[in-house]
Design goal:
Layout (H helix, E strand, L loop, with lengths): L1 E6 L6 H9 L2 E5 L12 E6 L2 E6 L2 E2 L10 E2 L5 H13 L6 H13 L5 H16 L4 E4 L9 H11 L4 E4 L1 H6 L3 H7 L2 E6 L20 H8 L3 H6 L3 E3 L1
Parallel strand pairs: 1-2, 1-8, 2-7, 8-9
Antiparallel strand pairs: 3-4, 5-6, 9-10
Length: 234
């Protein structure tokens, strides 16, 4: 059983969804330390001016658990994000299919916790993509350990026999000997960003954007396009 593990992301990007869809079980780390320089509260879309990073303003302290991170509701980020998204994608072929959900996210609801926002988005994207991977939240598992030890224990907690890791983690901080000792093999995600039709073609194709970019341009074909070049190095 192939297991992948990752934090919740805002408007998750293609590489994130690719890893999730390639696994049998995906463990969402909703109770890990917040990384202010990561993708937990930011991601990119394509605009007429090129790539635009959208960031959810948060209130956090050093070393704070992701589940405790609050959205800074004093900032008018929701209308700004909605304006950028609608302005960029309203002429995309499949915009209308997602407009109601996005209006609800940005214009009708208020968000206090970052995890709640990100979980709502992830649930929606997986449903419309048709991803069948089993989702388990880390907060539901009483798993001890830090770093690689924790990853091994999480894999074992869900019956995993193989851990799917990103290429960067595999080369930088993963401890393969801990997985080997536990009888859990390793697979490395080999992700090649797919190319697909995008608006603002004069800017050229921009890869590695939010899954929203693929969905509004390609609709029901999005998952097939994303997974067409899936490879694992074992």
């Amino acid at each position: 059983m192939l297991v992948a593990i990752h934090q919740l992301h805002y408007l998750p990007w293609l590489r994130y969804i690719h890893k999730l869809a390639a696994s049998d079980v995906f463990i969402v780390l909703d109770n890990i330390q917040f990384n202010k320089n990561g993708y937990q509260n930011r991601n990119s879309i394509k605009t007429q001016q090129g790539r635009l990073v959208l960031t959810v303003p948060v209130l956090h302290q050093l070393g704070q658990n992701l589940s405790e991170v609050m959205v800074d509701t004093k900032q008018n980020w929701q209308k700004k994000h909605w304006g950028s998204i609608q302005g960029s994608y309203r002429k995309a072929p499949h915009w209308k299919e997602h407009e109601a959900f996005l209006e609800d996210i940005y214009l009708r609801r208020s968000w206090e916790k970052l995890n709640d926002l990100n979980r709502t988005m992830l649930d929606y994207f997986l449903r419309v993509l048709g991803v069948k991977t089993r989702i388990v939240y880390g907060s539901e598992l009483a798993v001890p350990g830090e770093a690689s030890e924790r990853l091994v224990n999480l894999c074992k907690a869900v019956g995993g026999t193989c851990y799917l890791t990103g290429a960067f983690a595999a080369g930088q901080y993963l401890q393969p000997e801990l997985f080997e000792k536990a009888g859990v093999s390793l697979a490395v995600q080999e992700f090649k960003a797919p190319e697909y039709p995008q608006l603002f073609s004069e800017k050229g194709f921009i890869p590695e954007l939010s899954i929203l970019d693929l969905l509004v341009h390609c609709g029901p074909q999005s998952l097939d396009i994303l997974m067409a070049r899936t490879d694992h190095v074992r």
